[in-house]
Each structure stands twice: as structure tokens, then as C-alpha cells.
Design goal:
The complex is a heterodimer of chains A (about 325) and B (about 475). With about 325 residues, chain A is mainly alpha-helical. Chain A folds into two domains: about 150 residues, no CATH class; about 160 residues, no CATH class. In chain A, about 80% of the residues lie in helices and about 0% in strands. Chain A is built from 17 helices and no strands. In chain A, helix 9 packs antiparallel against helix 17. Chain B is of the alpha+beta class and about 475 residues long. Chain B has two domains: about 270 residues, no CATH class; about 60 residues, Dna Ligase, domain 1. Helices cover about 30% and strands about 20% of the residues of chain B. Chain B is built from 14 helices and 21 strands. In chain B, the strands form five sheets. Chain B has a five-stranded mixed beta sheet. In chain B, strand 6 and strand 7 form a beta hairpin. In chain B, helix 2 crosses helix 6. Chain A: This is Alpha-E domain-containing protein. Chain A: Pfam families: Alpha-E.
Chain lengths: ~325, ~475
């Protein structure tokens, strides 16, 4: 396959995944921000949404204050923000158009349809109910794209590259949510768990749609270290770092097998996967949750570069 | 004004031509709702497949659909036989002419074509002088524009010997028609066009350099997603099962072309390029081209890669050379042209110029190097200002123009807002020439001027397309 084609596929699914992550972040934030001020706490939820999205610096270059209006505008519709939902779909569709022949009709439909729809709605201000509807629409597009991919694609290198982009982005998003909210999960702050913490913790779970899963797995009320365990180490939880890396390794191995050679990308992914497999949540807390997550984010980034070097350049 | 145009379905006396008998009955019996509904369905299908066409200079509609007309255009087997024999003859002559112009130049020595039309032609490539591409074939894919004026007379309007486009519409129009009107197909024996991709691939493979492996690697080179015909490039690459590459996907090492793949460099033997000559290799042509591949020409001259069409074929398809085509056919093939040329005034010749200036209101004036319906004056439909503008242009550079009588292009029934109504059409069949012979798929792209009375069928000027049926036997 052409390297450029692989690159386009990789970024296409990365951008769709990113759009979905942004929709989840906005949803969870909207929910938290709508609580009575007593629960609102010391933090500005809208500011932490911008941080979770990883665009804080550029955001504050443009806006003085992070509030409902500015953050929704910036994360959802701003053309100056390369990672806004609008731009994610725009870029995804551009990439899809360049690799039309590598996509199935269903995948193209999902992306092209979303792009056409979005061009109709993009310049409107969305509030309340409308915003909620828009955000669930974004998630539906991602589901449709992902579902089409898994139901209609041949299991060949095209499939592997599109999954790699999605998984790398997914791991990145989960880790960034943890990175911004890690202080809420530290034992000294969350010992008893008042109303405030409860809402904050559940917001983290909602941002990765893991609220129900949490109860199924632990059958307990919300405990910060269990939340961390679920999002970092639990193999059954599809957005956990461990699950993402299990899949990343699988797809990189499939590529190595079909091309008859492996390289840096395979070795790095396997090393991270082994670290996650052998880790224990108590040890992670002892050595520092924040350090662990920061380390993970930079490893994840390096894996992206290694994949680029090895296949996409 | 010319006499009323020949309608391909209904004769002047109101009778229906035989080939259209079934279709006319069907149109008469179809409830108006049905046609409306099918039109909307067709638009939806095209929109979903993503067939779009970018119109240069139209920022608003970066991607828009070419209007598709749901009423097919029908040609009989006998008409097609005449056309295909004429097309084959014409393309053979084009190939011999180009080989001669870059080779022994016998036609120039014989005084049949003037020197300056070759050597002062912007499309003449001195780099190719004395060179011969693999198999000494130059025009592998030609799109010859044909118009019709009565039951028996077809004219060639234009030869496209560089990178003709439109074949994807021929294929998609048929696909959509079969989906929307299966009942019409069951009443006609329509010759299939679906084998075009196979024929094209066979042609491209036959053109591989003799040194290439028996299973040559063929790619399609596109300028990229912003090109107006990008959809067609990706469509064809898909149908042929070959890689769709951009310049940056290719590189040249030791006079061999490679593409960058996820498994490392892979050798390329045949490039079906949809990039114009001057953008192909920044080391030889335009140095500012980012669309090309540095060193490509060195690989080409070394005989390590085939480019289709060959470099420099534009020397045969401009409108000034066009007027010499009947002589060119006679010179190389010793036969009379099977397809006529439209009578053409060469404004470079003083008498012709004088005539054109006097009669400009009845003529169509075209720029010699123009294409796509740009830079053209349709005398009978032009305003006074437009006419004066062209008179001035003609006086300033007569060599840049030709003029032709305004032909009464044939019309076909077309579904428009006011119902079924005649509209002017042309036809672009596609002629493939490989080292193993000529292949022509029965049919082609029928373009239709959707505006009443308009003679301009180009998609960049609001023209639409129709499915073209050649009836079997």
C-alpha cells in the first residue's frame, strides 16, 4: 500500500475518534456545569474541558474567559482550532476523499454524510437541548464510522492502519482526562467522598462512557482508585489504556506478519503493553499517578512517531 | 440562424425514428410523477457516490454535480459501426502523425502541414525530437468529440489526445440507469460499457516497456484532490485495481521510477498520468511544479517507464492542426477520412480572416489552444460587445483562432423543468490504443446543453450528461 494512503487512513480514524472524544468531554462538562453552585466546586469546569482537549494555550490566546459559550464555540465549531469537531470532520472527510478507494462505501457514506450535514449546521449557535442533540449526533457518526469499518472492511493492512489511528487517539484521550482530573483521584482529597467528589468522579466515567461498566466490574460505590484502575488497567474496558494497547499490539503484529518484518513500533507497543499488564494500581498511586500518566502520554506520542517513521513517511 | 436541428428521436413530420420507438412509447406512458421521482433518486445516488466536479473560478460550489439527464441517447448498430471505424482510422492517423513530427518529419517535407504550426506550437516538446516512446505509440487514450447534424452525417468536432476526461461519467451513468430503469433495459438490447476498465487495463499493460516484468506495475498519477477530475481519477484507479498516486508518492533512482509504500520502494512500469506535460518533471519542464516527479523524464528517456499518453501529444490536437486532419489521414493511410471534419476557417490565412471578420455573427470562433468551452464565441448567440471584443482579438492575433459555421447540432429528448424537450448534444467516445490493437467500448459520453437553444455542452459551462446506448444487432 502507498505510504500516503496508510497515512490518510491513520489520520482519518484518528480525527473521527477525536471528534467523539470532544463530544464526550463537552457532554460531561455541560452536565457538571449545570449543577448548583454548591457542587460546582473550586474548579472552572469549562477551563478543565479545554485542558482535557489539549488546546488550552491556543484557547486563551483567543478568549479571556472559559465559559459555556466560548468553550463550546472553540471546541465544537471554531475553524481556527485545528482540533475542533468541525475541523476534525472536515479533515477526516478530506482524508477520506483522498483514499476513497481504500474505504468501503459504508465508511465513506458515514463521513461524507456527516460532512454535508455539518456544513448545514456549522454556523449556528447551539444551546441547551440543541447542543445535547448535536453532541449525541457526533457520537453517532463516530459509532457509524467505527461500526461500518468493523463490519465491512477486509482484514488487511488497510484495516490495521485505520485501527492504529483510532486506538492511539483513544489511549491519548483517556490518559488526558486522567491527567487533568488526577488530583480528584488522590486519596487525601477523596477519602470519604462528599457530593462534590461524587459528581466529579462520575463525570470522569461519563467522559469515557464507563459509568455502567464501573458498576458491573466493581459492584461498589465510586472509589477514586477503582476509577483509576478501570481506566488504566482493566482489559475489559474498551477505553482503558491496557485495552487500547492490547489492540495496538495486535494490529502492529498483524502488519509485521503480513509484511514479513517488524521494527521499532512493534517493540515500543509491546513494551508499553507489558508495563500495563504487570502494573498494580496501588503501586501506581505509591509512585505517583501524575508521573505515571505523564510518562504514558509521552510514550504514546513516541509510538505515533515510530509508526509514522516505519510506515507512513 | 441555422435551420431547425435534427432531432434524434422525432423527425420533422412528427414520426418517431425506429431506434427510439420503445423509448418514445415509454416516455409517453410514464406518469410525470415517476420521472420526477427518478430524477431525485438519481441525484441522490450521484451525491452519495460522491461524483462531483469542481468548476474552476466558482468558489461557492467547490464540488458540484454535473446535471444528469435520465433520458438515454440511442445509437443504432449501423451508426456505431460507421463511427467506430472512423474513430479507429482517425486515432491511427494521429499516432502516425505525432511519431512523424518527432521523427522524420515527412509530412512537413511534403508541405502538407506548415512548419510553424508544429514548431511554434506551445504543446510541441523539443525534448521528444528524435525519441520514440515504448512501442512507438503516442496516443493511447483518446477522446474524440463528435457532433451530428442529420440522419447520416457525423462530424469530428475536436480531437483530445492529451488527457481526455469523462469516461467515469459514461460508466456511472450506465450504472445509475440500470438501477433506476431496469424496465427500459429489458426492452432494449443495449451493448455493455462495463468492460471499459478491463480494456483500459489490458491496453496499459500492453504498453509496458519491453524490459518490464510480465506482470507490470501500473499506476494512475493524479494532480490530487483539488483537481476538477479527481473523482474520475480515484474512480478509475479503483475499477482498474491500481494505485492512485500523486507526484510525491513517486521517486526516481538510477533512471527507474519507484513508489513509496508501507513495505518500502516498489518499482513502477506504466504511469497512466492525468497530469499535463509541463507539470510532470520539474527538472525538465516547469521548475515550480510540485505535482510532478523530479527525474521522471530521465527514466522515460531511458525506456524504463511508459507514460500514457506520451509526452508531446498536444501537438496533434489543437484546433489549428484539426483543420489539417483530413489531409493527415490521406497522407499516412492513403484513404479518405471516414468521419468528416467541420469546415474550418484558419484565421492565420488572410482570406479566411477577412471572411470571418465579415461573417462573425454566423460563425463559432474558437481559440486554437482553448478547451472546455472557455475562450469561445458563438456568433448567433453573442451580444454586440462580445462580437466586437472578438473582432479586436482576431485582428490582434489571427493565428490564435479558427472559425467554423454554427452547426445545427442534433437534439435529443431531455427531461427539464418544463417536461421532456429537445436539447443539443454531442458525443465523446473513448478510443484505446495498445501494442496489441485498438479497443473502443460501444458508446461514450453524451453531453447535453441543458439550456434551451444553447450549443455549449461543456460541463464547466453548465452542460449535463446522458447515458449513451448503442443497440446490439
Amino acid at each position: 500500500m502507498l505510504s500516503r494512503t496508510a497515512d490518510n487512513l491513520f489520520w482519518l480514524s484518528r480525527y473521527v475518534e477525536r471528534a467523539e472524544a470532544l463530544a464526550r468531554i463537552l457532554e460531561a462538562t455541560q452536565r457538571l456545569a449545570s449543577l448548583p453552585a454548591a457542587y460546582g466546586g473550586k474548579t472552572n469546569e469549562w477551563e478543565s474541558a479545554v485542558q482535557t482537549a489539549g488546546v488550552a494555550e491556543a484557547f486563551f490566546d483567543k478568549h479571556e474567559e472559559a465559559n459555556h459559550e466560548t468553550v463550546v464555540a472553540y471546541l465544537a465549531f471554531d475553524r481556527d482550532n485545528p482540533s475542533s469537531i468541525l475541523n476534525c470532520f472536515e479533515t477526516a472527510r478530506h482524508n477520506a476523499r483522498s483514499v476513497r478507494t481504500a474505504l468501503t462505501m459504508e465508511m465513506w457514506d458515514a463521513i461524507n454524510g456527516a460532512w454535508i450535514e455539518l456544513r448545514r449546521t456549522a454556523d449556528r449557535k447551539l444551546e441547551g437541548e440543541e447542543l445535547t442533540r448535536f453532541l449525541s449526533w457526533v457520537k453517532e457518526i463516530s459509532l457509524r464510522f467505527d461500526g461500518s469499518a468493523s463490519r465491512t472492511m477486509l482484514r488487511n493492512d488497510i484495516y490495521d492502519f485505520s485501527r492504529l489511528g483510532m486506538l492511539l487517539e483513544r489511549a491519548d484521550n483517556t490518559a488526558r482526562i486522567l491527567d487533568v482530573k488526577y488530583h480528584l483521584l488522590l486519596p487525601e482529597e477523596g477519602g470519604v467522598g462528599g457530593g462534590l467528589d461524587y459528581y466529579q468522579w462520575s463525570a470522569i466515567l461519563r467522559a469515557v462512557s464507563a459509568m455502567t461498566s464501573y458498576h458491573w466490574v466493581y459492584r461498589e460505590s465510586l472509589k477514586p482508585w477503582l476509577i483509576a484502575d478501570l481506566l488504566i488497567l482493566n482489559d475489559q474496558m474498551p477505553r482503558s489504556l491496557a485495552a487500547c494497547y492490547g489492540e495496538l499490539v495486535r494490529h502492529l503484529d498483524a502488519l509485521a506478519r503480513s509484511y514479513g518484518r517488524q521494527g521499532q513500533a512493534q517493540r515500543m507497543a509491546r513494551a508499553s503493553r507489558v508495563r500495563l499488564e504487570n502494573a498494580d494500581i496501588r503501586e501506581i498511586f505509591q509512585t505517583g499517578l501524575h508521573e505515571f500518566i505523564t510518562g504514558f502520554l509521552s510514550d504514546n506520542n513516541r509510538l505515533g512517531l515510530a509508526i509514522h517513521e516505519q510506515y507512513l513517511a | 440562424m441555422p435551420s431547425p436541428a435534427f432531432d434524434e428521436m422525432t423527425l420533422q413530420d412528427g414520426s418517431i425514428r425506429q431506434a427510439y420507438g420503445e423509448l418514445a412509447d415509454w416516455i409517453a406512458a410514464a406518469p410525470p410523477d415517476l420521472l420526477d421521482y427518478r430524477v431525485r433518486e438519481a441525484e441522490l445516488l450521484f451525491r452519495r457516490i460522491g461524483i462531483t466536479f469542481a468548476v474552476y473560478g466558482d468558489q461557492q460550489a467547490q464540488e458540484r454535480l454535473i446535471p444528469f439527464d435520465i433520458i438515454p441517447r440511442i445509437l443504432t448498430a449501423a451508426e456505431w459501426k460507421l463511427l467506430s471505424e472512423g474513430l479507429e482510422q482517425r486515432v491511427k492517423a494521429l499516432n502516425l502523425y505525432i511519431a512523424d513530427v518527432y521523427g522524420k518529419r515527412e509530412i512537413l517535407k511534403a508541405g502538407i502541414v506548415p512548419h510553424e504550426l508544429v514548431f511554434q506550437n506551445a504543446a510541441f516538446r523539443p525534448e521528444m525530437a528524435g525519441k520514440s516512446p515504448p512501442h512507438d505509440l503516442w496516443v493511447h487514450i483518446a477522446g474524440i468529440d463528435i457532433v451530428r447534424v442529420d440522419a447520416d452525417t457525423f462530424y469530428v468536432l475536436e480531437d483530445n489526445a492529451r488527457t481526455p476526461s469523462g469516461v467515469s461519467y459514461m460508466l456511472e451513468n450506465r450504472e445509475v440507469m440500470i438501477r433506476l430503469f431496469p424496465e427500459l433495459f429489458s426492452r432494449h438490447r443495449v451493448a455493455p460499457v462495463e468492460k471499459y476498465p478491463d480494456e483500459l487495463l489490458a491496453t496499459l499493460r500492453s504498453l509496458a516497456p519491453r524490459s518490464a516484468p510480465s506482470d507490470p506495475a501500473v499506476v494512475l498519477l493524479t494532480p490530487g484532490v483539488y483537481n476538477s477530475a479527481y473523482y474520475e481519477h480515484s474512480f478509475l484507479a479503483d475499477k482498474l485495481g491500481i494505485e492512485l498516486v500523486e507526484g510525491r508518492d513517486l521517486f526516481v533512482r538510477d533512471e527507474v521510477v519507484y513508489m513509496r509504500t508501507t513495505e518500502g520502494p516498489k518499482r513502477v512500469d506504466v504511469i497512466y498520468r492525468r497530469v499535463d506535460d509541463e507539470w510532470l518533471d520539474p527538472l525538465v519542464f516547469r521548475p515550480d511544479s510540485a505535482l510532478g516527479v523530479p527525474g521522471l523524464m530521465s527514466a522515460y528517456h531511458a525506456g524504463n517507464v511508459t507514460l500514457t499518453n506520451a509526452i508531446g501529444t498536444g501537438v496533434a490536437d489543437d484546433k489549428a492542426i484539426y483543420s489539417y486532419m483530413p489531409d493527415i489521414i490521406r497522407f499516412y493511410l492513403g484513404a479518405e477520412p471516414l468521419l468528416k471534419n467541420v469546415p474550418t476557417y484558419r484565421c492565420r490565412e488572410p482570406e479566411a480572416l477577412a471572411y470571418v471578420l465579415d461573417h462573425i455573427e454566423e460563425l463559432v470562433v474558437k481559440e486554437v489552444h482553448g478547451s472546455g468551452g472557455y475562450g469561445m464565441l458563438v456568433g448567433p448567440h453573442a451580444t454586440k460587445e462580445q462580437v466586437e471584443l472578438f473582432r479586436a482579438k482576431l485582428r490582434a492575433s489571427p493565428g490564435g483562432f479558427i472559425a467554423q459555421p454554427t452547426l445545427a447540432l442534433s437534439t435529443c429528448p431531455t427531461y427539464v423543468d418544463s417536461g421532456v424537450s429537445p436539447r443539443h448534444v454531442d458525443l465523446r467516445p473513448f478510443v484505446l490504443t495498445g501494442s496489441d490493437g485498438v479497443r473502443i467500448v460501444p458508446g461514450g459520453l453524451t453531453r447535453v446543453a441543458m439550456k434551451e437553444g444553447s450549443l455549449v455542452v461543456n460541463s464547466s459551462q453548465g452542460g449535463g450528461t446522458k447515458d449513451t446506448w448503442v443497440l446490439d444487432g
